[in-house]
Amino acid sequence: MEILLRPVIVVGGCVVLTVLLGWATDLLLRKADARHGETPLWDRLRRGRIPYQLVLCAALLRGSYDQVKLLQEHRVGIGRTLTLVLIGAAAWLVIRIAAAIVETSYSRYARAHHDPARVRRVRTQVTLIMRVVSAIVGVVAVAAMLLTFPAMRAAGASLLASAGVLGIVAGVAAQSTLSNLFAGLQIAFGDMVRLGDTVVVDGEWGTVEEITLTFLTVRTWDERRITMPVSYFTSKPFENWSRGTPQMTGIVYWHLDHSAPVEAMREKLRDILRQCPAWDGRAYGLVVTDTTPNTMQVRALVTAKDADDIWTVRVTVREQMITWLSAEHPYALPRVNTSDAVRAPHRIPSPDRSSLHKAYDVPRTGRG
Fold this sequence. Notes:
Blueprint: H1 2-35, H2 41-45, H3 49-64, H4 75-112, H5 116-147, H6 150-161, H7 163-173, H8 175-190, E1 198-201, E2 204-211, E3 215-220, E4 225-229, H9 232-235, E5 239-240, E6 248-256, H10 262-274, E7 279-291, E8 296-304, H11 307-328, H12 353-360
Antiparallel strand pairs: 1-2, 1-5, 2-3, 3-4, 6-8, 7-8
Helix pairs in contact: 1-3, 3-4, 4-5, 5-8, 10-11
């Protein structure tokens, strides 16, 4: 009877104690969150309650397993399994705690600063820092799991002895991966490109959607995703439309007849912009920038708060101006002249052969 009751009591006690400790910790975190509403740290720490309970349960079972006289022939395997679960849960818990601290710091910074460019820069750095921390914790956890096996511990000395050679071989084999890794760190702390930036790469216009340590994803205007290595942004030129400030100036061109009413077009441009919600009201203008024998080039300058709004303003101005010209001033639209050519006022008669001989006194001599 004791053989059956002892495992049930020990295992059941560990599970009950884990649940009670998890509930008490979650209750304390909820009270702290209600008391300190200015920071989301305590609420985000509650996301780690599952790995926290796994750590407690695995630690309690690992420590009390020797008291359970059950499956003694599998004692080593079960103990190693509990150790592996404990290491994995501890790594999971560390990542959750680090994520809560980093996200809380970013939220405070975002509330304190209203500059979108600086906020996007910090957001990019925070994202890459979390990826680095997760990678480091994962590598350490995997290494600790491997060292629980005696064969891996025995091979540790020989691995350390050949670490220099392995490092050189690994560096040569993973040259591109390492270059992308360092490029990702350079992007994070060099403020070259940030999450949410509007960029033009290889002729494609889009928004930076994701940045990792090895690749970067750009979401284009037609919802395609372009994935490229981060080393591209450190080795090739690209356009960043929102690096300093998201405000932009757009250009609209028309090719019109020389008789187009330029002053009336300026007034119409002002009316169109006043009715366009995407226009930020900073500036506008309309001038003639070039002429050709058949048309003249008219350019309008408009402004908006970001790249999306500048596109809306440009297409709105272009469409409504053409519609207005077609309805009110159709003569201003470019046209091709097809009238007959005007003849010269005086036609000079073409000379004949006799007149040419007389004019130049060419002698008509025979042979001999």
